[in-house]
Write a structure and sequence with these properties.
Helices cover 46% and strands 7% of the residues. The strands form 2 sheets. Strands 2-1-3-4-5-8 form a 6-stranded mixed beta sheet. The protein has a two-stranded antiparallel sheet with strand order 6-7. Helix 2 crosses helix 11. The chain is an alpha/beta fold.
């Protein structure tokens, strides 16, 4: 090898190491859950729960479907945007390697729930237990890249978002009349059961190194176009599904408080998805929407029946609709939701919003660094 080649190679290695060092100082982001936060994992699976065909992605920067159940960006994308990070890649994406691992990963899979039998009709989806196994696998890959100690530090510092629960009602308990779960449990007992199971999932996330975990409750399940189409005669939200959410969400907050008390730290942050959604569902005009009942893309009453496809009705201006398809918000609605993540009062984010988390954690890091410098100066 000549000297010029060796110098070029050496500079390239230094540049790569510098990039890795800088990116490992940035805050990683990990996402777990269902279709509200899936950004393309199901594209790599043989499943019917997919959003990889037009008109999905019509307002995404590439104007192509990406696997996000949205006309454009979804909630994790917008959180990444707000914290100044690039969007996380789906864990199953072949692009998730090398430096990209330092950004974090999205493990979410459309159709899944707290329970393993939720979403079985979709055949091949990444159940939450498998998502947690992938998180362990991810950490092994990360350790191979930057070392065990640095990998642990990155995971401990990371933000985590988990969104579960809705499918355990709409795609399990209420999927069909007299479902197996509804015959097994009265609704209050079912809610207690899935809350008990959710607590185990949340505890496992902490055991795997997560230290800042944002946990969303369910939205207003009875108000989505799919349920209006099936259950509503006058456009009113279905009271039975609203009752399910009203039982689930307070019990979720209770277990988050219990977990934080047990750990002696505010690890788990409650995100009141019900109120975040109901704000614009109750008063769409206040948020610039013409409707919060009719989906932009779909067919049948409220465009709430079946899938969103190229054959569906499609609104021309997605910014006027709060729902993109039968179940999922438009990008504009997602931005309203993330705004509450960032700056919302304790009604929305408890015990603190994301802006407070970021500021608090930054101060702690700066304090530790000052302490280390002062200790070093004082050494004989």
């Amino acid at each position: 090898m000549n000297a010029s080649f060796l110098l070029t190679f050496f500079l390239a290695v230094l540049a790569t190491l510098g990039t890795l060092s800088t990116m490992s100082e940035a805050r990683a982001f990990f996402v777990f859950g269902d279709s509200l936060v899936d950004n393309g994992n199901n594209n790599y699976l043989a499943t019917t729960a997919r959003a990889d065909s037009p008109p999905y992605g019509i307002d995404y920067p590439t104007h192509q479907p990406t696997g996000r159940f949205s006309n454009g960006l979804n909630i994790p994308d917008i959180i990444s945007e707000q914290i100044g990070a690039e969007p996380t890649l789906p864990y199953l994406s072949p692009e998730l390697r090398g430096e990209k691992l330092l950004v974090g990963a999205n493990f979410a899979s459309a159709g899944i729930g707290i329970l393993n039998d939720t979403g079985i009709q979709f055949i091949n989806i990444i159940k939450i237990s498998r998502q947690l196994q992938y998180f362990e696998q991810y950490q092994q890959r990360l350790s191979a890249l930057i070392g065990v100690a640095q990998a642990k530090k990155l995971v401990n510092k990371a933000l985590v978002l988990i969104t579960l629960g809705g499918n355990d009602f709409v795609n399990n308990y209420y999927l069909v009349p007299f479902s197996a779960r509804s015959r097994e449990f009265a609704l209050p007992d079912y809610v207690r059961y899935i809350i008990f199971e959710y607590k185990k999932i949340l505890r496992t996330l902490h055991e795997l190194g997560a230290r800042r975990i944002m946990v969303t409750g369910t939205g207003p399940l009875g108000c989505v176009p799919a349920e209006l189409a099936e259950r509503s005669r006058d456009g009113s939200c279905d009271p039975e599904l609203q009752r399910a959410a009203a039982l689930f969400n307070p019990q979720l907050i209770q277990i988050l408080n219990e977990l934080n008390t047990d750990l002696g730290s505010d690890i788990y942050i409650s995100a009141n998805a019900f109120k975040m959604h109901m704000d614009y569902v109750s008063d769409p005009a206040a948020y610039g929407f013409v409707t919060s009942k009719i989906a932009c893309c779909g067919q049948g009453p409220y465009n709430g029946l079946g899938l969103c496809t190229v054959a569906s009705n499609l609104c021309s201006n997605r910014n006027l609709y709060s729902f993109w398809d039968a179940y999922h918000p438009t990008e504009k609605a997602n931005r309203i939701i993330v705004n509450q993540f960032m700056i919302g009062s304790s009604e929305y984010m408890n015990p603190m919003n994301l802006s407070t988390i970021l500021a608090l954690d930054l101060r702690r890091r700066q304090y530790r660094r000052r302490g280390k410098k002062e200790k070093k100066k004082g050494e004989p």
